[in-house]
Amino acid sequence: MTLSKKILVYGVIPVSLSLALIAAYFSGIDWLQQLVSPKIPNMLPDSRREFGLLENLQNAFLMATLITAAIGVKRKPLKAEKVAMALLAAGFLFLLLEEIDYGLHYYELIRGVPWYEAAKTRNIHNVAETTDVMKRTCDVFLALWFVVVPLAFAESRRPLLRYLAPDRFFIITIVAMVLLSTLAHGLKDAGFGGQGTISKNLSEFRELQIYYVFMLYLMDLVFRRRLPDEPPKEA
After folding, report:
1. N or C: which end of the chain has fewer CB within 10 A?
2. Tens digit of pLDDT per residue, the chain (235 long)?
3. What is the dihedral of CA 60, 63, 65, 67, to 10 degrees?
4. Residue 111, class by beta-carbon neighbours within 10 Å (0-12 exposed, 13-18 middle, 19+ buried)?
């Protein structure tokens, strides 16, 4: 991939997308805010936002990552790679189901279930302190895998480490994610955003970047990389 394409893929696209969504949500223009995270009468706030552009882009990235992992099961020639891709596919399927609350909000919208009768427990990651634990764990993983590992092992003499080490341009994406998350919280603290449906869940902007990173990394692994001992692909 050329330098200009890397700047586009790792920097311009994720930053522009997140900035557009942040600008729309904090613009003070009601229809733009609702495009990002709508207000739907008689639904819980946590369910309303599931129908917005922000949440559905997250779902799209997770779906693309899941499909990529499934393709990797077929595309990768080594058994260990196939097993790894199958495990990743299962993991991203779980994440996708968690993100869509296992379809509960679709069911409640179609059936017209009022907010006071809606299910209280909707997924695993929002139960008790699970969310905070997962966020902290994810932060450590992102810092280690997409910042430290590329710097330490991208030029390693060991083929497996070179194969697995993320591209160093991911550092741009991770730094941008932190800055954009800070921007979103700063705008909220300054009084923008009003009573939007994600005012207490601004981490959704950060999650969008995280899922983009996962998608991009797996696509790189499946479609562009190969181990030296992989047998050549048939013509």
Report:
1. C
2. 899 999 999 999 999 999 999 999 999 899 999 999 998 887 776 777 888 999 999 999 999 999 999 999 999 999 999 999 999 999 999 999 998 888 888 888 888 877 777 777 777 776 766 777 888 899 999 999 999 999 999 888 898 999 999 999 999 999 999 999 999 999 999 989 887 888 888 889 999 999 999 999 999 999 999 887 666 655 4
3. -140
4. exposed
Total residues belonging to the chain: 235
Is 198 exposed, middle or buried, given 0-12, 13-18 or 19+ CB atoms closer than 10 A?
Answer: buried
Is there a contact between 98 and 130 (Cβ–Cβ < 8 Å)? no
Structural contact between residues 26 and 37, judged by C-beta atoms closer than 8 angstroms: no
Question: In this structure, which long-range contacts are made by residues 67-70, counting pairs with CB atoms below 8 Å and at least 24 apart in sequence?
Answer: 68/215, 68/218, 68/219, 68/222, 68/223, 69/218, 69/222
Say how far apart CA 148 and CA 168 lie, in whole Å: 9
- Return d(Cα 160, Cα 104) in angstroms, integer: 41
